[in-house]
Amino acid sequence: MLLSGLLTCTMFIGLISPQSLTMSNFGTSMEGPLAEIIVRNWSALIGLMGLMLIYGAFVPAVRRYSLVIAGTSKIVFIALVLLWGKSFLSFGAGTAIIADSFMIVLYAAYLFFSKSSNPA
Q1: Secondary structure of the chain: what % helix, strand, coil (to 5)?
Q2: How far apart are CA 35 and CA 72, in angstroms?
Q3: Is 16 exposed, middle or buried (CB count within 10 Å of its CB: 0-12, 13-18, 19+)?
Q4: pLDDT per position as a tens digit, 21-34
């Protein structure tokens, strides 16, 4: 969780340089004030997922929640790129899909094989 959280936190770079983030991940940049807001917000939200994973790595009480939320977010990203952005697979988005898929498998394995400390 710690490593995947740190990798996910790299998306905070979009708060500083949204054009370079979209260029490296999608091979194109978005222009205008609305793009600045959307990309910076997207970067912040993904970066916060990374912080949540890091926190969950050290606090068992929130570990399962962190994995489910971050994993779901990664599944949504993968689905969106595969459905509407296949042309971006040759850029950083393709690498992100591979890394995120691997992380999802690890998260699912942990969730499946670990016992819930709070059974319903």
Answers
A1: 85, 0, 15
A2: 24
A3: exposed
A4: 999 999 998 889 99
Cα-trace Rg, the chain: 15
Rounded distance, CA 67 to CA 37, Å? 27
Q: Where do the structural domains in the chain lie, given as residue ranges?
A: 2-113
Q: 82: Cβ–Cβ under 8 A, 6 or more apart, which residues?
A: 97
Q: Which residue has the tokens 């050290």?
A: 58
Which of 68, 41, 67 is closest to 54 using CA atoms? 67
**The model's pTM:** 0.90
